[in-house]
User: Fold this.
Amino acid sequence: MNVLEQLRVYEDSNLQGWSGKSRTNKEKFMDQIVDFANDNDVEFKTYVTNLEPNGSSVLEIIYEALSKFSDVHFVFLRQEINRLFNLLVKEDVDDDDLDVLDGIAIRRFYQYDYDNFKGVLDDLISKLASKNDNEVNVCIIETIESYISKVVEEGHKQDVDKWKADLYARSEQLSRSSEKKLIKEIFNEYKENPISKFSKIVLVFVLFVYSVFLYSQFSSTLNLNLFNTNRLLILYLGGGFFLAIFFDFSFKIIKNGLLRFITEILILGPIALKIVFQFIDYKQLEFLKDWLYLI
Assistant:
């Protein structure tokens, strides 16, 4: 049997044959699905687009295969998400039937094809309408919230703001309180960080000035002959890295991740050394003193 014939067997048996497979065998078959889709594009897409989502559908298997075991089928997956939500809006299927979309690895979708991921969210927002049944709009909004939660890159924040603005415009057209409440929850979840960009710039500048002051202070007062310089360097880098955990929110004004990390270490390293030297004579830190000093 080829892949499509096997899928028909699983669907005819209400997925019983599939549920009994081991994870290893499932993954092997999903690899075969991807290979078949790559080699038989038209036949495969024709088969999939004629499937209806329901409890015995193999759509979830197909979606998982295309999203987890391939990076080249996200355009088609976007089309499928759009197709299924169109069926929902027309009330040809129930919201529970769209559980098959759980097979899509949305985080990988976001990571590997952000343009089409954005398109999915734009498509979903456009489907919100006052004429829709309440369950339809609720399903759409909950899906939007789930997908937006995968957006973690700072550079994509402007897209989140756009989706929020679009949702707000749509919410003005909706009359049911349950729908408005869900949209409000999305606004609360992704509201603007209370620390403004200007405040972050000021904080980074203050840290920079203080770091320069410490550099000059260390150069005039610190006798490097007293220290194991390699360990002092490790303490400098490690201390800077540790403080970066707490101050990273400010340095996010620097978009490039590597440049931001290097800047954090350079600026926060001297501050970390200052803190260590402030408390190094404490009895609890004798081990650190013995480790750091040569004599």
